[in-house]
């Protein structure tokens, strides 16, 4: 307590005693024991009230010592086991944390990392990925605004995440403790293989391969890509001490539709310590998207030739020209382009009502609009016999598919009969029309969908001028041809809106995250948050099935199937309230990225140490590391004087005591007739 507080307490004693004396002794004639007792009660009550007002505080000082943190992060990935260093890592970790001098100087923090980072003092070395970037990110957050050293027991072989060399705070020294055999062995390795997940049937798809060599002799290796028992590509590759990498670019044929599994391998006559990294499996989904587009016309017009060229730029499209009476040629057609239909097209319209082929209707001066009104109800035409030129205006709110404005406002006008065109609620307008600079609020290019059937309307002829103008503006037909291809692609798609939409890959590499996403929509095609989705995953070989629930996220449901072994799997996603289901399959390819290494990445770990002004140590230099940490005078404990202030009294109990004293005084006075 302070001196002022003590003086106030003494003054309180005097005041309490004085008031008690004045009340009971100053004019009292009878100084019996009762008076003394009442005076004592009054003294205690007044003194308690004064103490309550003063509220004396006790101050307690204590000395607290804060040690510098020492973060020890241990690589828990399976590459440690692959390099036969798991026992050594555990031994080094125990040596560091049990050192008395380190315990006295530092606050030791133990962590493990593989794909994730977390506090731990036990390690199983089963992590399927290594992410040293997570170590840097988390240590910055945990020991924010502190200067501290970090020891990383690792082989330095990172398989995921950003390059860790420059991710650690350069203010805080990092001391990599390198584990694994640093002896250079002859090793051939497929370092990386890049390939698109999808390819088109009867096309060729590119494969880019990065090969790596470790050794001190000149050698020649055979690189092959095989499918089953057939070799589909073969290359001879030479390496030397000065040429340790090679890049191959190959084109493979997509001859079969569906999921195609390939095996890339590299080999030589020499014996290697690690042959696991000589093989890499990959898969490509071959899609048959070949589609036939029929342009039906009763007249000759430059638009037809321009449209045919624009469509056939995409090698997956084939255009046939058909007269209105050649119905037999339309059996395998994906899209019908009906150019300026008249009553001669009646048989085609009648036939298509049953076939349900998506159509692209182009009108012009020769179109019979009364007939067209009878064949569809998406647009209503009230046209005169007068011709008119219509300019186009791009509608940026169009959202059926992604499309850029390629300069439609600068294109020449299209010619059509003058009149009014009205739309129903199911029509989406991409281009609206203008007469000179006056907007007509009528469509020029519009799309409609009715009971799963899609129809596009282009209201005007002379689009060949558009293609020519696009070439003048861009020195290429590409932008216009892409615009036409997107229209055809939208019409060629037969995908209708489904209530259950499931997103997944056809194949996954072992060790990758296997996530399947699903969305369930109600009858208004609104995302249903109350849906109950489950998935049944069945191994195609063992027939063993497992059930999982899909968890709701922001706008989808998802399930993580990590832990499945390599092989083929069939699965079914089911919505329990409606029994709506979706079935498909995927394959997990045998590929363990953590088994790709024969040596620790000493170079990168030394770069990391240099970047943070630390030092890299090898596994037999643990004592040197300990001495370096102990001798570094930068890391000192901080002594802090902790001042704790606590009230001398508990005001609640003091109030109760004061109330009891005053109550007792009143009853005693009442009993003795002193009131």
Automatic annotation (TrEMBL):
Which ranges does the record mark as transmembrane?
6-26, 33-54, 651-668
Q: Does the keyword Methyltransferase apply?
A: no
Keyword terms, alphabetized: Membrane, Transmembrane, Transmembrane helix
InterPro entries documented for this protein: Class_I_gatase-like
What name is this protein filed under? VWA domain-containing protein
Q: Which organism is it from?
A: Flavobacterium pectinovorum
């Amino acid at each position: 307590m302070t001196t002022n507080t003590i003086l106030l307490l003494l003054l309180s004693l005097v005041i309490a005693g004085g008031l008690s004396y004045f009340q009971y002794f100053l004019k009292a004639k009878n100084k019996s024991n009762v008076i003394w007792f009442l005076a004592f009660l009054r003294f205690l009550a007044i003194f308690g009230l004064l103490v309550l007002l003063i509220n004396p505080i006790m101050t307690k000082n204590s000395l607290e010592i804060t040690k510098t943190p020492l973060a020890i992060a241990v690589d828990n990935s399976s590459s440690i086991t692959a390099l036969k260093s798991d026992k050594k890592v555990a031994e080094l970790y125990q040596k560091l944390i049990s050192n008395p001098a380190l315990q006295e100087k530092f606050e030791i923090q133990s962590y493990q990392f593989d794909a994730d980072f977390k506090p731990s003092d036990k390690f199983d070395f089963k992590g399927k990925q290594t992410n040293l970037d997570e170590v840097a990110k988390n240590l910055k957050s945990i020991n924010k605004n502190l200067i501290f050293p970090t020891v990383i027991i690792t082989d330095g072989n990172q398989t995921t995440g950003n390059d860790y060399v420059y991710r650690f705070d350069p203010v805080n020294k990092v001391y990599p403790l390198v584990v694994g055999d640093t002896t250079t062995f002859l090793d051939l390795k497929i370092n990386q293989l890049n390939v698109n997940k999808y390819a088109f049937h009867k096309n060729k798809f590119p494969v880019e391969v990065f090969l790596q060599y470790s050794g001190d002799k000149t050698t020649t290796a055979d690189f092959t890509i095989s499918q089953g028992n057939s070799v589909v590509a073969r290359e001879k590759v030479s390496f030397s001490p000065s040429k340790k990498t090679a890049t191959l670019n190959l084109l493979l044929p997509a001859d079969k539709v569906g999921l195609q599994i390939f095996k890339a391998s590299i080999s030589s006559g020499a014996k290697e310590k690690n042959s696991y990294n000589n093989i890499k499996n990959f898969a490509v989904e071959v899609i048959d998207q070949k589609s036939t587009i029929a342009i039906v016309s009763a007249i000759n017009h430059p638009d037809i030739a321009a449209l045919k060229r624009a469509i056939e730029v995409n090698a997956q499209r084939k255009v046939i020209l058909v007269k209105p009476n050649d119905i037999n040629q339309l059996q395998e057609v994906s899209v019908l382009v009906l150019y300026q239909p008249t009553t001669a097209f009646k048989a085609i319209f009648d036939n298509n009502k049953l076939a349900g082929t998506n159509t692209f209707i182009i009108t012009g001066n020769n179109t019979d609009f009364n007939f067209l009104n009878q064949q569809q109800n998406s647009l209503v035409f009230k046209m005169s016999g007068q011709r008119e030129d219509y300019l186009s205006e791009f509608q940026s709110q169009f959202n059926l598919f992604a499309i850029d404005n390629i300069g439609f406002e600068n294109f020449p006008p299209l010619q059509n009969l003058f009149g009014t065109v009205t739309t129903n609620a199911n029509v989406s307008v991409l281009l609206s029309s203008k007469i000179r600079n006056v907007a007509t609020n009528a469509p020029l290019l519009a799309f409609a969908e009715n009971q799963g059937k899609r129809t596009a309307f282009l209201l005007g002829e002379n689009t060949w001028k558009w293609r020519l103008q696009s070439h003048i503006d861009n020195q290429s037909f590409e932008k216009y041809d892409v615009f036409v291809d997107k229209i055809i692609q939208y019409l060629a798609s037969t995908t209708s809106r489904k209530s259950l939409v499931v997103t997944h890959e056809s194949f996954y590499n072992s060790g990758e995250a296997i996530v399947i996403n699903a969305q369930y929509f109600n009858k208004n095609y609104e995302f249903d948050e109350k849906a109950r989705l489950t998935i049944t995953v069945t191994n195609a070989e063992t027939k063993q099935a497992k059930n999982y629930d899909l968890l709701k996220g922001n706008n989808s449901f998802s399930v993580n199937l990590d832990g499945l072994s390599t092989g083929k799997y069939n699965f079914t996603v089911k919505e329990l309230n409606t029994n709506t289901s979706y079935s498909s399959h995927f394959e997990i390819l045998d590929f363990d990225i953590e088994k790709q290494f024969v040596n620790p990445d000493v170079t990168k770990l030394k770069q990391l140490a240099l970047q943070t002004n630390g030092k890299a140590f090898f596994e037999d230099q643990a004592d040197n590391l300990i001495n370096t940490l102990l001798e570094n005078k930068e890391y000192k404990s901080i002594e802090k004087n902790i001042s704790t202030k606590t009230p001398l009294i508990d005001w609640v109990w003091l109030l109760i005591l004061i109330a009891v004293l005053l109550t007792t005084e009143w009853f005693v006075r009442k009993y003795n007739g002193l009131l």
